[in-house]
Write a structure and sequence with these properties.
By secondary structure, the protein is mainly beta. It has one helix at about 90-99; strands at about 5-10, 15-20, 35, 50-60, 65-70, 75-80. The chain has one domain (about 5-99). It starts with 6 loop residues before the first strand and ends with a helix. Bound molecules: zinc ion (2 copies).
Length: about 100
């Protein structure tokens, strides 16, 4: 068995999150919270803000769900595609909870 070390502990719910394959996903698939680490380009890790990003809304375009996140610290917004293992069934209640 190959061990995959690329995982992180969710800052919000404390679960261990394996990084999704082939995406630059960095949000938690359970509670959808992430850290503000990206600059202008998703995945560039160019920001040193480190604020928490919460989901605020989502849209479905061409069959793909895109989630809009907003940084609680600096107010920056960014969109991210859902990952295949996201528990999107929780997303509505998460968005309501964080408001
Ligand atoms: Zn979480
Ligand atoms: Zn920020």
């Amino acid at each position: 068995m190959k061990k995959i070390n690329e995982s992180f502990i969710c800052i919000n719910c404390g679960k261990e999150i394996p990084l999704a394959n082939k995406t630059c996903r960095n949000h938690c698939p359970h509670c959808f919270v992430s850290l503000h680490v990206d600059g202008e380009i998703p995945g560039d890790r160019a920001s040193d803000c480190q604020g928490r990003m919460y989901p605020v809304t989502y849209e479905i375009k061409n069959g793909w769900m895109k989630i809009l996140f907003k940084c609680q610290l600096c107010g920056k917004e960014h969109r991210n595609k859902r990952a295949m293992d996201d528990e999107v069934i929780n997303l509505d209640s998460c968005i309501k909870k964080y408001k």
